[in-house]
Specification:
With about 80 residues, this protein is an all-alpha fold. It contains five helices and no strands. The longest helix is centred in the N-terminal third of the chain and has 20 residues. The two termini are about 20 Å apart.
Length: about 80
């Protein structure tokens, strides 16, 4: 079970990742191809039905050539 604070951090992380995806005009399908995850998995992460993993965060950072700390903006 996650604390309220942990849930808020995950919510901000997911929003930041979604923003990077949107800024690059990538659908969940395109993003999934870039980070080697199925679109269904991405949809579940973005709706809070699955948790973010470190692997997901690292792959996002590599795919968009951004530092991991950029994903933690406003956390």
């Amino acid at each position: 079970m996650y604390t309220k604070e942990e849930k808020e951090v995950m919510k901000v992380l997911v929003q930041n990742i979604r923003n990077f995806r949107s800024e690059n005009n990538h659908s969940q399908n395109v993003f999934g191809e870039k980070i080697n995850y199925e679109r269904e998995h991405i949809a579940k992460v973005e709706t809070g039905k699955r948790n973010l993993t470190l692997k997901y965060i690292i792959r996002t950072s590599i795919a968009y050539k951004i530092p991991i700390k950029a994903l933690f903006k406003d956390v």
